[in-house]
Amino acid sequence: MDFHQIPSISYILKEIKRNDINVPHDLCVLISQREVEIAREAIRSGKNITKDKIIENIKIKLNFLNKSVLKRVINATGIIIHTNLGRSPLNDSVAKEVAEIATNYSNLEYDLFNNKRGRRDLLIRDILIALTGSEDATVVNNNAAAVYITLNTLLNKKEVLISRSELIEIGGSFRIPDVITSSGAILKEVGTTNKTHLRDYENNISELTGAIMKVHQSNFYQEGFVQSVKMEELSNLARKKNILFFEDLGSGCLIDLRKYGLNYEPTVQESIQKGTDIVSFSGDKLLGAGQCGIILGKSKLIERIRKNPLMRVLRVDKMTLCALEGTLRLYLDKRYEEIPVYRMLAKTIDEMIQDAKYIISNVKNKNLTLEIFESEGRLGGGSTPRSFFKTIGIGIKHKILSTKDIETFLTRRSIPIIGRVLDDFYFLDMKTVYSKELDFILQALSEMS
Ligand SMILES: *Cc1c(COP(=O)(O)O)cnc(C)c1O
């Protein structure tokens, strides 16, 4: 027991001031009290802990709080839609429009033609219709919300048929069976894990059935003795039996990914052409906008969803709508590669080699060994789980620091750099790095003593 090692809060605050840490007073007090409590607990359980160590821990924590805690980072993982790193980044000029809308008043709910109250989700309805060929469209907070409000509005207390191979978990606790159940719909599993036939759906349709639901197997794939039912067949069956056909598409892919060397990902347009009554997808995966969920489909169904009181609970903010509109306009103009996700997909091996060489030839640090490596990147964000693409990056070794130390150094920079451990190296993949970020990496590596 060595409680006298625990410094007083006023002593700690004085120390912090001396160290030029620029964190608001109330945050300093909170972090100091919490750290002192942790130290007290450690001493109680017999650990040795010194005053200097306590102060050091507080300083590290406060350093994280020096600037905003939600920070820009450099994605050098080679995973383009990285859920931990905020999924897809926005195009710069779209982001400027968002800033304009955020810092001014807007017509979010004001109808400028009729000079009366308007509806926010109607603003971009026509853009979505023009792009996808659907009858109607609305937007909610994310795709989980889109699935939830669709089921809750159209399928409450009704059975929803879904193949056992599509009862998926997306991660972060989104599980299709749980969402269906909590929405008020009744889950009716059909088929088996590997094979589902048309008759499996047919034999389970009764007067309780409200819909056939198809969930895109976004983050895994099945191989071997597998079979599923074609979209057209499901849509015909649904029509014949007078029930709905709803697809949760996951990633909102609007263009053919094969031209980027990836496996084909079913597109939104295709889902509508093949006869879905309702289709939902995310705004911040392949679409490349901000977090939102888009619901497309038959007007009379979308109109019912719009009238659900949950719409108010799940509605999107003006900044989200603005980011979505700006991004969708890039699709309308076919300026796909101005959307960062597609710009990165299009980044060539030569461009990546050039970037790596630029960094390697300009870093000034005798302790470092830097090598150009080939590696594999992924689209990520629960899209095209089977597709890997060749990438180029920089393998980093340090005379004294371990790969773990390198990682800590890079992630504690004011603009953290996130790569990964690759064998004995720490690896920075150039596929997902913007040209404007090369000098930050260069500087970080030069300062890694
Ligand atoms: C990603 C995904 C979701 C969840 O979407 P969020 O936008 O993260 O809420 C739901 N279903 C499928 C099939 C997905 O891939």
From TrEMBL:
Annotated catalysed reactions: L-seryl-tRNA(Sec) + selenophosphate + H(+) = L-selenocysteinyl-tRNA(Sec) + phosphate
Cofactor(s) for this protein? pyridoxal 5'-phosphate
Question: What EC identifiers does the entry list?
Answer: 2.9.1.1
Query: What is any one GO biological process for this UniProt entry?
Result: selenocysteine incorporation
> Per UniProt, which keywords does this protein have?
Cytoplasm, Protein biosynthesis, Pyridoxal phosphate, Selenium, Transferase
Gene Ontology terms, cellular component aspect? cytoplasm
Q: Record's NCBIfam families? A: selA
Q: What is this protein called?
A: L-seryl-tRNA(Sec) selenium transferase
Name the source organism: Thermodesulfobium acidiphilum
**Lineage of source species:** Bacteria, Pseudomonadati, Thermodesulfobiota, Thermodesulfobiia, Thermodesulfobiales
Q: Which gene encodes it?
A: selA
